[in-house]
From TrEMBL:
Gene3D superfamilies xref list: Arginine deiminase (1.10.3930.10), L-arginine/glycine Amidinotransferase, Chain A (3.75.10.10)
Higher taxonomy: Bacteria, Pseudomonadati, Pseudomonadota, Gammaproteobacteria, Vibrionales
Protein name, UniProt field: Arginine deiminase
InterPro entries xrefs: Arg_deiminase
Main location as per UniProt: cytoplasm
Keyword hit for Phosphoprotein: no
Pathway(s) annotated for this protein in UniProt: Amino-acid degradation; L-arginine degradation via ADI pathway; carbamoyl phosphate from L-arginine: step 1/2
Gene name per UniProt: arcA
Keywords: Arginine metabolism, Cytoplasm, Hydrolase
Catalytic EC class: hydrolase
GO molecular function: arginine deiminase activity
EC numbers for this chain: 3.5.3.6
Family in the record: Belongs to the arginine deiminase family.
Catalysed transformations (reactions): L-arginine + H2O = L-citrulline + NH4(+)
Amino acid sequence: MSKLYVGSEVGQLRRVLLNRPERALTHLTPSNCHELLFDDVLAVEAAGEEHDQFAQTLREQDVEVLLLHDLLEETLAVPEAKQWLLDTQISDYRYGPLFARDFRQYLSEMDNHHLAVVLLGGLANSEIKLDTQSMLPKMHRPLDFIIEPLPNHLFTRDTSCWVYGGVSLNPMMKPARQRETNHLRAIYRWHPTFANQEFVNYFGDEDLHYDNANIEGGDVLVIGKGAVLIGMSERTTPQGVENLAYNLFRSGQATEVIAIDLPKHRSCMHLDTVMTHMDVDTFSVYPEIMRKDLETWRLSIGKDNEMKVEQVPSYIHAIEQALGLDYLKIITTGGDSFEAEREQWNDANNVLTVKPGVVIGYERNVYTNEKYDKAGIQVLTIPGNELGRGRGGARCMSCPIERDGI
């Protein structure tokens, strides 16, 4: 059986988790999309077709594609998992004890396929016929969501991230995404692909409130050789980084974490929207954000197994040291400053490396793709006119579960 292990950002990708956008997108409207963290409403059919091309491109590169809906449906077939998910997602605190009890009963009678659809895609008050004494449904309007849709589940990168021989189940910053993590917790705990496998749970798998310790996978780059690069962005806090680093070191899976302080705004909501790893010695970088003077820290193991934190002069030098390289090749976003800003917004830097020097990116980013090509990086292009409106590219939309080291 193949191993759950992600040894780098650029080694041969072998298995990946995607989520095809479906019902959740049909619930996006101009009046709710911002609350659900989207800038725009997507054309659902077209987004699905673009996503199918992304999945197909991966399969053509010998990558096994797992789909979140299928994994969730198969996990719900395990009675204990189904019970846990209903108790967790339909909790007494979320809905009040009367409605929660009746609603759990209502959902438990659905077949697993339909239940997975609803948990991922949402359910409006008008769509349920439920006899309950609770005040709650009587106080809701017909189109109010009883289960909010999770359109951001499209970005499987963030909810959990595999780092060397283990996984972090990430406590997400925004309420619109926090329920996503429970789906992954159930899948990794009970789905046959994961249930009997050896791997470390670094963080986020306990039933508690993680307070300010937020971390999202878009900020975590497994650069290889025991090193991890993490951005402290709009969605990842220093508390989250220190917790994850502590557990990485304690389990012996990583030896150092390089943490970079990023500006806290939406255009660079995660490190991977402004910087990705494309070949052992090559990174794609948006220079407007990734300036050389960004504050950077190195976390490592000190004496007596205590965590040691030191500020370092430059993230580029820190990466060179971690990877044992004389110098890094940096490819900046293409075009003049207008084109570069536009292409960064459309995820030109957010490419997914499938093997050293071969990446998947949106075809619309012509200036940047041309620069990659000239630098010897092969770009496999996919359409992204609809998918790109969610502000995420090929790296955001993929969660590697198995990948070679460097």
